[in-house]
Every structure is written in C-alpha cells, then in structure tokens.
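G., before I forget:
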Amino acid sequence: MKVKVISRSTDEFTRERSQDLQRVFRNFDPTLRSQEKAVEYVRALNAAKLDKIFARPFIGAMDGHRDSIKCMAKNPNYLKAIFSGSDDGDIRLWDMASRRTVCQFPGHQGAVQGLTVSTDGSILVSCGSDCTVRLWNVSDANLADSDNLSDNSAKPQAVYVWKNAFRAVDHQWDGDLFATAGAQVDIWNHNRSQPVNTFDWGSDTTISIRFNPGEPNILATSANDRSITLYDLRMSSPARKVIMRTKTNSIAWNPMEPMNFTAANEDCNCYSYDARKLEEAKCVHKDHVSAVMDIDFSPTGREFVTGSYDRTVRIFQYNGGHSREIYHTKRMQRVFCVKYSCDASYVISGSDDTNLRLWKAKASEQLGVVLPRERKKHEYLEAVKNRYKHLPEVKRIVRHRHLPKPVYKAANLRRTMIEAERRKEQRRKAHSAPGSIVTEPVRKRRIIKEVE
Amino acid sequence: MGAIKENSDDEMDEKVKKYLRGEAANLEGLKDKKLKGQLAVREDLYGKSAKTAAKIEKWLLPSEGGYLEAEGIEKTWRIKQESIAREVDILSSRNQYDIVLPELGPYTLDFTSNGRYMAAAGRKGHLAIVDMKTLNLIKEIQVRETVRDVAYLHNELFFAAAQKKYPYIYNRDGTELHCLKEHGAVLRLQFLKNHFLLASINKFGQLRYQDVTMGEMIGNFRTGLGRTDVMQVNPYNGVVALGHSSGTVTMWKPTSAVPLVKMLSHPGPISSLAFHPNGHVMATSGRENKIKIWDLRKFEVIQTLPCHAKTLNFSQKGLLAAGTGSFIQILADFSGSQNYSSYMTHSMAKGYQVGKVVFRPYEDVLGIGHSMGWSSILIPGSGEPNFDSWVANPFETSKQRREKEVHSLLDKLPPETIMLDPTKVGTVRAPPKKEKPTKKEIEAEMEAAIETAKDTDFKKKTKGRNKPSKRATKRREMINRAKRPFLEQRTQEHETSRKKHKLNPETEMPKSLQRFVRQKAT
C-alpha cells in the first residue's frame, strides 16, 4: 500500500532567528474563506466611515493680497510655486509649502486680468485693464536669488502697451507665442512689442482664452456674446463657433484627451465638448447653484475643479454629471479662480476675500511619505468602498456632505424649479398629439447654434 | 505530448473556475453603454486575476495532500491503523494514540480553527486544554459538575463549557470569566467565527445567540420542537441547523424567530448532522441506520447510505466520518460527483462507545471522543495541506495571534448577514411580486381616501360667496372625486367577470339546460 500523511516540520514553517521575518504562507482558495462578500461589505462600511473621519481637506490660506484675486498661473517646471494676480495690480509668487510670498511683481496700474507662464517656466506673462502686457523673468535661478533680496520684488523684462484693456492671456504649450483676449484676440511673440496676428469674429469682447495642450496651434476662446470660438493659428480666419444660451466664463482643455474641453458657464453648469463635434455637449456637469467662474483640469485628465460665484469649490469627474466633492469655508467669498496643482494632489482657489486657499484634492488623503503597506491598504479600502458604494448604508455615508445653508436652500429651490418645468413639459407632451412636441436632450438644449 | 498538454489545460481550467467564484455577468441586455463598458473592463480584470491565481498555485502551495492507495487485491477499508503507522514517519505516527480516562465519563472534543489546540471535556466535569503540536497539556480543571459540551471561541484563549445549569466561559489558565445565566441548561454549543456569536440549544429547546464581544443577546427563540442536542453550524453561511426528534431538520438565523428552512429528513429522530465545508452538502443520520447526503441548493437527497451513525463529521477535503458504538467508518467520494463510498474503517476496543468524531483542521488526523477517554487516528487525505497564514496559522506566535484577533474583530460581521445564500450580499433584490389587493384592502383604501377628502379645509370665501349650501356641495364633490377611481375599478371588474361568464356558457351549463343557452347570431 502507498500511504502519505501531511507532516509539517516546524523548521520549514517558522523563522530561524528572531532577526528574520516571519514566514507567511498563502492559499487563495475561496473554500478556505467563508462569507467573503459580507466581510467585504463590512470593510467597505468601515472604510467609508474612516474616510469621513479623516476628511480634512483645508490645508491653509495664503494671506497677503489687498484686493480680490482674479487670476492665477502655475509654473509647469516648479511644483511648489503659484502666481496670483489681484485687482489692485499686485502679482505675487507664493511658495505653497510654507504658504508665504516669495516674490512680488509690482507694476500694473489697474487690475491684473490674466496670468500665464511659458512652458519652459522662464517667462511670466501678465495682462491687465491698463492695456499693458508685461513679461517677467521667472526662471529658477531668479527665484532662488530673490530669496536673498531684501525687497522681494522684480522688474519686468518687457512692457508692451496696446490699444484696449485685456481680459485674459494664455501661452502656447509648445512654442513661444502667447495670446491675449480683449476686444479682439491677439497673438504675440515674446520679442515683438506688437501682436503678430489678430482674430476678430463677432463684435463682443472675448473674456477667456486657452491653448490646446495637444495641438499647439489651436485655441479656444469665449466671448460676451455667449459663444465659444475655436481658432487655428495656421489659418487666417477663425475655425468654428458655438453659441449657447448663456455666457461661458472659462474654458479648460483636458490634458489627457486634448480634443475635449470643458466650459464653465453662467447657468451654473459646466459643459464638456468634443472640439470636433460642437453640435452637442459630451456631458453636462450640474451641481453649482450660481455662475461657475473658473475651471481647471487635473494633470491626470480624470477630474477637474471648478470655482463658482456661490462661494464653493467643487471637484468633478471628467465624465460625471455630479460633483464628487465640495469645499467651502465661512470665510471664503466668491471664488474667481481655481487651479489644480501639477502633481494632482492639491487644489488652489483664489477668491474675493483676498486669500488664496490650499486644499487637498482627496480630502482624506494621507500627506507625506506613505509606506508601501499603507499605500496598499489605502488602495484596497478605496477599491472595496467603490465596489459596494451603491448599497444604501455605504452610499449614505459616502455621499454625505455638509452644505452651507444658502447653498442648500438655493439647491433645493433650483431642484423644485427644474422639477416643475419638467413636469409641465411632460404634461404638455402627454396632452398633445404624439410626436408634436420633441424633447431635446439636455446636452443639446443649451446650444443655440453652431457656426462655421 | 498533446494529451499531456490537454490534461494540464483541463486542470488549469478547473483551477481558474475555482477562483472565478461563479459565472460572469451577462452584459448583452444592457442598454447603458457607459455602464456596459465599465462592467466589461471589470469582468476582464476578474478573469485575469483568476488566471494569475491559478498559475501561481504551483509556487505558492508547497505541500501536497495525503493519500492512501491500496495495491493489488488489498482494499483501503481493511487497512488497519497499525499498518499505516508502520509506513509513515515518526512525527505523524505520534498523532496516533489513545488516552484512557475511564472514570470521568464520555468525552467531547473541540479543536481551534488552526488545529493547534484541543479542548476535551469529560461528562463528569473534567476540562482539559492540550497543545496538539507538542502534545502538551496546557491546563486541566475539574469543575465538579456535569459538562455536556465544550466549544472554543475565536482563539485558544477562550472556551465555553456547557455545564449542568449554565454555560461558563473559561480562560486558557482555567479561570472562569463569565457565567452565562440567560442560556439555561445548555445541551450543545456552537461558535460562529465570522460573527463572534455563541449559539446554544438548551434542555427546553430554546435557541440563543449571544455576541461574545459585547455580551449582547442577539436572539432568543423557542424552537417549539422539543428537546434536542443535535446542532451544527454551516461554516459557509453561518446558519445553525438543528435536528429534532420528529425527524425534521430546521435551519435558523439570529434575526428571525421562524426557522429559514424546515425539512423532514428521517422517519425517526435525527441522531446527528454534519456540513461539508463548501456549504452545499449536508449529511444527516437518523435512528433507522441510514445516512442521507443532501444537496442544500435544491434540498434533495443525493445519496442514501446504509450505515449506523451516532456522530458525523466532514473533513476539510470532504471525507465523512461516521461513528457508532466502537466502530468508525470514513466515507469518501473519489470521483467528485458526491457518490460516497467506504474509504477506511477503524474499530476500537470493545466497550468504548464513540461520543463525538472531529477531524483536526489542516492535519490528516481524526479525533474521537469516547466513553473511556479520547483517541486520535490517522486518515490520509482528510486535511488541507496548504494553510493560509491570514486565515488560520498552525504555527502562530502570540504577536500574530493578537494581530489576528484585532483584524477579525474589525471584520466582525453583523448578524443580519447570515442568510441561506451568502453571495446575495451586494446584489439587487428581486422586486416583490405584486399581488392583487383583497377586497378588504380595497375597501380600507377607499375609506382612507374618503377620510382625507373629508378632512380637507376649504378656503373661507368672502363677499357673500360663502353660503353653507355651496360649502356642502363642494364637500360632497370632493368625496365623490375621491371615491370615483375605486368605483370605476369596481365596475370594470364586474364587466370583465361578466364577460368571462358569457364567454363559455356551453361548457359551464349542465347538459339538461343546454337547450336554454343563448345562441349567438352567426
């Protein structure tokens, strides 16, 4: 007969010296574990609760400006810094880690309307209501030196004066052209004191401008006549225009999918478009209760942050209809500009109360160095929470956010108004001949027309 | 070469199937494209992870299981324990022994989940904790009372003993920690590991569930079926099964006073019950000397075996041990198709009455508690050769034990998760079938509608428009409006029923009255 019995020798299964690691043996057989789904559900519930306990998104405020902050720019080569310009012409460079001003760039006489940094991080371009465009030298060496300077201020490299007040500025991603928006769209070169090219379509002022990250020659602008216009620098005339029902305050291109852009609109929604097909929005992001003032994409292209006139900052998924996170403070007033930091971990908001605020992009994230085991644990908890986030107990905890009372009431009001409108439309449809009333999908409803 | 490759492919497929944990979802009927895309990605990931787990098995699982093969005309059930002991190494042959303690009554045994420690309780009050690796007696105490059952709690530090009047919880050092007075005179104790619930059935047939972490009594049910001492927990779903003297097996969960399932299994009283670790197979034995193997998904008998069994137990690998008198029979299904046949037998010295058989987890050992003490015999192929350190570690250090305790407490399941099909957690519940409301219910609804209509306050009109007669008509109008849908429904039903009557008068009328049936004009 052939016989074999399980016999385990202790040496194989225990460690030899106390300095060694303990031996771990794994068997992934599902029959060894019972009720896996219930265990995962309990872990998801606990993970959701812990998330809420550790959710402290506000890191700090950067105090220093004396007037409301209208625009911000991030330096793609230097993660720690952010530029901000305010309504009294004050431009400051902040160090986010210590939350202090590193350098000031005085010079503008009126409000600073736009700030942008060139892609190699050497030149800061600012434009203002005093009809000037100023170029400042902000390469790394300069910043390091300026720590030693006693007055912490810098002189502009060049000042270009032009005909009208400017409203916005943006730098090309892969070149040395930058564009300003004002009465018309001007394309400038660093070295020329006059615009190289001018675009004009329509009679209203252009209020925001953005270059495409993928195609260096394409840019999108939005104007006061409720339109979004796409321009191609290689052609002498503008490319396409879509007119909506309300004005778009700001546009941001998705850095990972450069054919898509999202427009922050006055009607409290953000509309994502595919630049090749402007007749229909790809997605409508609804959650704000007042005009959305600024929008910025995360470098991962998966999320974007919006700041709105209703004193809140919201973070949306790139394809999600509702926000995943809302940040608000009693002291933060109307938010005019927001930026997502280049490492996708922080969100900076500049608002009416002269403060720049630094927030975490994921509210319960652990900052600092995270050990590999901790990181794995966080990832596991995130995954198990996502698996069960549709179950009522977990959903209730994950969804719960405290809203300031005015926002809560305004949201309720909006909801009842929209519901009433929808019910009336339904009844009109039910009581008229079938097919006579056609409901337009929401993605198309806010677009009036597309113009070539 | 081709044939070998095919075999290994089949093996891989089987392994992958094991790790897939069920079928993939059917995405054909989905209209939501976004959701379809997301689910397709996820199903793909599941497939990949199952394949990786199957591939890595070769490296991760170092040990192979035990086996016993007979050669020539030899039959495995004739092989005696002495011949096995001769063939096997010294360490394993140490696992074969008989401990004779004749004065202290029939012994029951319980093992911890990692198979390292054993608690033995003699009827006359002898409680002993033994470390099975070193065969070291850790502690023994004499409680000077009848002890009917012993059960380990979540680790080797705590065990519960069902003594004469109440169950007590003891420490590893033998200190009495708790006296559970509410349970009464308990006959059997079972511990639900994932939920930290101690289930007990007492002399009066009352089933109690107590949470041992907080001491809260979760459930207290009168089974109504009399005194029984056959109780087992199904490890797959945490359901407690009781076998009664009427031959019914009832299954209970802590959140309902009514049993989940009541099945009539045997014509006479049930003598014992055992669950297969996969949760789908149950073995019951009755006094009529038959063992029935049930499939719990369909609640059908798969196999009936003519075998005496006073006690039953399944091993981790699916071997069934049945013990009566001084004879123990081990049954195994070799083909995997739930067809049990005799594998090994063991007869002890005459006069030893087997009380309880328990397989030791992760070892090829069967522990037998009998009237003269306890024994242990070798059953090759019964234990799981490869353990998972995070589930149960026979070589646990005290630090690891403490960590495991904390983690298992964090993962403690609430009692509501006990259900017949544990894979239903997180799935969509089927909508309850809408039944037509009975006449009484309809009338009640009508009354409620009329009440609300009567309660409405009307606007007080001025300038001579507020005449009482007008108010009365308006009120009557409101009540009629509330009644109208019910009356309409009623007339509709009448019409349909009349139409139904009209449809086939010929078949309904008796033959003598056929001539009076109204003929339809053709």
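Chain A has a mean pLDDT of 91. DSSP finds seven helices and 30 strands in chain A.

More on Monday.
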